[in-house]
Records
---
Amino acid sequence: MSAKRIKVGIVGGTGYTGVELLRILAVHPNVELAAITSRKEAGMPVAEMFPSLRGHVSLAFSDPAKSGLEQCDAVFFATPNAVAMSQARSLVDAGVRLIDLSADFRLKDIAEWEQWYKAKHASPELVAEAVYGLPEVNREQIRGARVVANPGCYPTAVQLGLLPLLEAGLVDRGHLIADAKSGVSGAGRKEEVKFLFAEASDNFSAYGVAGHRHWPEIRQGLALAAGGEVGLVFIPHLTPMIRGIHATLYARINSADKGADFQKLFEARYRNEPFVDVMPPGSTPDTRSVRAANLCRIAVHRPRESSAGSDTLVVLSVIDNLVKGAAGQAVQNMNIMFGLPEATALGHVPVVP
Amino acid sequence: MSAKRIKVGIVGGTGYTGVELLRILAVHPNVELAAITSRKEAGMPVAEMFPSLRGHVSLAFSDPAKSGLEQCDAVFFATPNAVAMSQARSLVDAGVRLIDLSADFRLKDIAEWEQWYKAKHASPELVAEAVYGLPEVNREQIRGARVVANPGCYPTAVQLGLLPLLEAGLVDRGHLIADAKSGVSGAGRKEEVKFLFAEASDNFSAYGVAGHRHWPEIRQGLALAAGGEVGLVFIPHLTPMIRGIHATLYARINSADKGADFQKLFEARYRNEPFVDVMPPGSTPDTRSVRAANLCRIAVHRPRESSAGSDTLVVLSVIDNLVKGAAGQAVQNMNIMFGLPEATALGHVPVVP
Amino acid sequence: MSAKRIKVGIVGGTGYTGVELLRILAVHPNVELAAITSRKEAGMPVAEMFPSLRGHVSLAFSDPAKSGLEQCDAVFFATPNAVAMSQARSLVDAGVRLIDLSADFRLKDIAEWEQWYKAKHASPELVAEAVYGLPEVNREQIRGARVVANPGCYPTAVQLGLLPLLEAGLVDRGHLIADAKSGVSGAGRKEEVKFLFAEASDNFSAYGVAGHRHWPEIRQGLALAAGGEVGLVFIPHLTPMIRGIHATLYARINSADKGADFQKLFEARYRNEPFVDVMPPGSTPDTRSVRAANLCRIAVHRPRESSAGSDTLVVLSVIDNLVKGAAGQAVQNMNIMFGLPEATALGHVPVVP
Amino acid sequence: MSAKRIKVGIVGGTGYTGVELLRILAVHPNVELAAITSRKEAGMPVAEMFPSLRGHVSLAFSDPAKSGLEQCDAVFFATPNAVAMSQARSLVDAGVRLIDLSADFRLKDIAEWEQWYKAKHASPELVAEAVYGLPEVNREQIRGARVVANPGCYPTAVQLGLLPLLEAGLVDRGHLIADAKSGVSGAGRKEEVKFLFAEASDNFSAYGVAGHRHWPEIRQGLALAAGGEVGLVFIPHLTPMIRGIHATLYARINSADKGADFQKLFEARYRNEPFVDVMPPGSTPDTRSVRAANLCRIAVHRPRESSAGSDTLVVLSVIDNLVKGAAGQAVQNMNIMFGLPEATALGHVPVVP
């Protein structure tokens, strides 16, 4: 297809965002996979850990120190938090463009980051420079970015669902509620009892009610859209499915704006967005309707509330947490950064059933 | 054990609330199962349709017309809506006490019932007399009731979670939000495509956003507790598990009441309730922690909201929709009606894992 | 992309094999989707029934009678059994090439077909002509076929797992055992109680022990490979997952052949097959390692059996029942029939997790 | 109820068999729970780790060294393998009767045990004395036993399904096949990646094909029944459900015995067994039909095999791995040992749906 291929490295390829990046990049016509690193698994063929990649990925995991990442055009970090920030500087200096799927560069307020992530930040100056990789907000800045902070999964679903309302100033920005439900892959490929099949299956619960790290990230994005601080209650829940996030968003309409056409507002906002689909009125989008695809589907509702009428708007926003909520969005960002058609290698039709 | 047994009939025993009633009643020491009716399956041994009951229930389904229900002491209706209302009169006149698990006697406002259930009500006078079977509210009236309207599953979870707040008048009753998630058995044993395993598994969605029949039932109960109309947004969701409801409830605390001790309020309200468990502060109850048991577990949270502080209270309320949300609560009501210890045959330890 | 596109019609597009065909064909570079028929849903946009296809398929279901199927180059039947056989003749006469995903043309013995499918066959002469669409056996005949009988899901997994043994004559062909497990989508998008989520989830059972329609189909294929009648016990099971078949196959090695290298035998047999992957010794392939991909993975084992040694060979064979077991194999057949590279539009990387 | 209660200790109460023992024993009328030990969690209330037990179990985990186990009447070991064997001697000497749910006392051949469990056995003399706790075989010896080796989950399902055939000598004991499928709780409450929800859900695979520790245990039991060595292929599989084992068993009928009435044979063998249910001819028992209950259901089939007839018998055997396959059977053994009615506290009706 194209003459020159982008030389791509992946740091930390053994988790779910790693294998999902590989699923997408393995068939990307403009990408050459140069290195997939894992200190722990160095030497093991990637397809041995992930048999689903047999025949698609022939690389072995390599030691980060010997992987030649600085010769790559782009490096994805699919690492735990607080890893990318230490390695970013030297790669950037070597001319590599970074897309970080962890949280290291998402929060502009370093003090807030350090409080939530309980670590000293290693590259505050790169935080200042980094672009928050939500293309629906920052497409132009992403084009030239050296460091892209790929958004979290919840933040993607919640922000895309609330942005039009806040940008237009039609709701009470001081009292937003995001009731979000995530599939278990959102917890990562972590050996924790509560994510075992026998624990998480046939079960449902809230978690992180006292404070979830995605809360400041969402508030930062919403505040930018609203032009001022927002009040947000964010309650995440674990639901027994592998992939998918369903955010149910509640906002109180300003009394002056009860006559607004919210369906139209959303349709207009996302008309030119290839990966946001505003559903017809009355829709209740399934998470599976975006399974394995880089897509956010949104429906806008105004439910009955009392005999006297309604002032609450309900927005339903669904994504695949591993695609539009992680690896897919990361590739979307890479496509933008390298001047490729934005949808390259992201044409997956959702897998149903 | 006891000398005299209660002669019990079940009308409509082929659905999930029916088989769950049988699971509980089959080992109830004071119950004699006299008849289980099903027009369609008359003659088939119950244990042939439900092999789980082999060795526990020896009855066959019988034709309602020939079942001798009027000789029973108590009859449970586990029928679709609009069935019990037609058969109730003659049974009541024969001295039988009724527990209706359908919605026929739940709404006091006949016009509202007829609008939501799209039928003419056949026994408005019994609606007036019927007692809403939420023991935590109506225990005394249940004792003497001839007709008990057993609450819906969502209404049980939502009301138990909000009642203390409304009774105490501490929150804005005009803006309540109930974001509720139900396992698929809540839809009944119905042959509908959307409840097939291949549709409902690994998937999550809202439904009934435009209006769910449990909405007026919840509003009726909350209004009684609040002493006036309430505003309620109720968004139910389908989650891929068999049993369980998780209600996440949002209420805005009155400015004057921000200093209240909500944990204490809930503990005091339910101190003597055998089937409501107020969890320790910080808890996030799993639905499986009540699986197969007649129990509602509740946790009270006051999450961060903005830098300026918080006025939203979040209550998590979980039940097994088929037990405390249906058959278990029905047996609890029967126990109360017949002067038995309220917990008789309801001592199930939740099944975990 | 290519100059001329294949004009494709799909008869019966409302089931799981239908939507899966659409998932694959929607992005096939050489296909023009001309018609998707459904008598019952005529007029409804396909993407309204299957929101996952929004943005990918713009057609509406059309009435079969008015769909202009005879102007298509290829027509897929994704219909219940006994439909294709009635419509095939006129389409074939109009020069259309047929790929039937139902069972109408799979059994060469008309009497046997009529016994298992309880109907009179409408096109016995086309049965004689039809080619059984297992490319690993009949690739050359498929090229020129006017009617391809696309294999069943179980028959694909079982035959691919046993063929090398029977072709080489190394096992007792009179005593083969196929213990097969299928995800629930294999039952189709059928409104039956036993396939409801609340029935099929967290549950496992055998079914069809007395006789499953895939039994004669498998025996026919194995007999051809073995050069004579085979004895086969085939026990299918329902397992609580959406997609996937896992066949565990048992064969007794001929005493003279205990020294054979079975791993090598399988590797040699499938060396040039793009969609059969013989796994390394010791592997236990997951069904998810082929999820949403057109692939059969096979592992060969020789387990301990007694202190005295072993003569049983165990073959594990996994496919996605909707892809290599249905729609994917159908597209593979179409590619062969129309002289396209066999893997066109079938390059999906399995979706894991 | 009864005057004297059995004082019971549980060693290792933090796994699935531990919490299941507690679910059963918490409401056992003749049991006083005296201690539940866990070195790691000493001091933590049991109901804090397992909220399902709130209100039922008030004990905290205690340090094994300070738990006063030697004052108990009975002690259950719900520990990993190779723990019970070290602590058994002193408890037995103190007059405590032991029920070991681990594998330490199951294999009579010490050398074989050491080979499979890769450890030196600490109490060979107690192995000699220990009674294998399958009541359907060893009820009388269990009554007086000081040490009961509670059978493994697979061995329970497989042995109960094959014993009648081997005792009667009607099948080729040299070529038995057990194709078994287990829910994920069978792997224990272990932090391993492959048992995570996102790995094990919507997936199916075989495992342990090269050799599973239950293989020698099953062979030992079958050999005793058959009166000589047996040949057995045992292939376990992991299926995405929480509880349940489904064993599909294949045996070749001796030519002389093709006329035997196998249904009758099984019914006669288990006529007086309270926890084995031989299903009517043609049944395919669901695992959920025994969910949360101490029960094995068995169905006997003789499927078609070839045009020439059949000599393979297929037996389907289902249990709940945590109940009849572990904790329930352990309580059944305790009841027998202490002269209680065998079904005490084991009257659970299976939980369906």
Note: Chain C has two domains: 6-129, 154-321.
---
Amino acid sequence: MNTATLGFRQPIAATIEAVARAGFGAIAPWRRELEGEPVESVARRIRDAGLAVSGYCRSTYIPAADRDAFAAGLADNRRAIDQAAALGAACFVMVVGGLPEGSRDLPDARAQLVEGTAALLDHARKAGMRLALEPLHPMYAADRSVLNTLAQALDLAAALEPAPADAPMLGVAVDVYHVWWDPALSAGIARAGRDRRILAYHVSDWRRETRDLLNDRGMMGDGVIDLRAIRAAVESAGYTGAVEVEIFSTLDWWRREPAETLAACAERLQTVC
Amino acid sequence: MNTATLGFRQPIAATIEAVARAGFGAIAPWRRELEGEPVESVARRIRDAGLAVSGYCRSTYIPAADRDAFAAGLADNRRAIDQAAALGAACFVMVVGGLPEGSRDLPDARAQLVEGTAALLDHARKAGMRLALEPLHPMYAADRSVLNTLAQALDLAAALEPAPADAPMLGVAVDVYHVWWDPALSAGIARAGRDRRILAYHVSDWRRETRDLLNDRGMMGDGVIDLRAIRAAVESAGYTGAVEVEIFSTLDWWRREPAETLAACAERLQTVC
């Protein structure tokens, strides 16, 4: 359970308890939920609740308007990678950032992404924390991520870590919401599997009538994504990790009681995913 | 000038006159504007106004829930192709359609697209009308177009018309709004140029704060797209046709007087495109 699905309305302690009580096996917390709490105590709470940590969300944006801001972003990401390690997360999720404010230079932002990821990979190796590059839907290219397809993420991983070992430190997070439309999806998943790069698998659904670019994701089964087909492809490619639910939904699920949303997720995971 | 930019608020005769008066050299009308008007009289009006026809919008959706609906869609498209020929359009713009209502089967919808385009290509050859496959932004994959990247469009064109002549009948419309984010854009434009497949080039802009998935396109210069770079790539690839403005904007430009919108387009075409 990615905690974003519950809309960040409770302290992390209550969320951990609710997720465990609803029967989930793993949790993916967000950094904003750990502010003001020692990471070790959150890690202990999660362990005591019997939960694994399927991922830690998420990186500070990498492309920046100037070199000082770029360096500050990397420093912040290094701290987050250390937190991910303290939590025992399966991976640190990288939402890489869009165009810097005022910029139209996509090639430059993507060059910054390569440079920044290379620097963070060095730190990740020392921390023993795997980095999961998450390609975001192309509709976020301006403001959230200049990494927009699985092929692009795999090209980046291959460039920075050319001969992946059994357990490469640089991989990808496959989120159905971002990649379901891609004509090259099957090929990308197979390639990611061959290189053992699939570090996370996120589910939600694409509502045919999407009312908001960011916060109108659907519950699994309420949209058009062929969730069974994508999961079969990911598992055929060798992925054995969690199926993580991540739903941003100011218009619907974030208005409901956390227990109701968790129950719906649990039921849909069994019936439609 | 694509007439959608003016919001379809005037009869086609008034739009033709306004576009010509504002100094544009070509117009791309929509089929809905020709309802109830003999196509020959509209064609004459456009010619008399001194305008070329840079494209005719647009195809009826191809993927359908059953074979009868599929056949009906093709029949309708054949009539539209004949209208495009009567108008002397540079191309017939194909917005190919999304998943049929209730379907999650993207591979099937894309198979229908191949079959339907092959059938229409036969008709287009007889009518002497070139078909411009327009890849739409991935955010429209559910409800408007299962054709989502330039590479996918070029693969389809190459499959159905393998050895393009000097003037292939099956090409692509490159619309910056749909393709600007694509890491493979430069490669795609170059490939399209080599095969002489670029039949149309559409401009608008991507607003960093996009408020609506369909109707919040920006005026050129008001967003993040590097319009000069893409135009340079398209022209380096051999495209010599019109630079066509197509802006859907219920929230801004469609609320303004057509003359104001036309003047803004004319100015921006000179200064930022």
Note: The domain at 3-271 of chain B is CATH 3.20.20.150 (TIM Barrel).
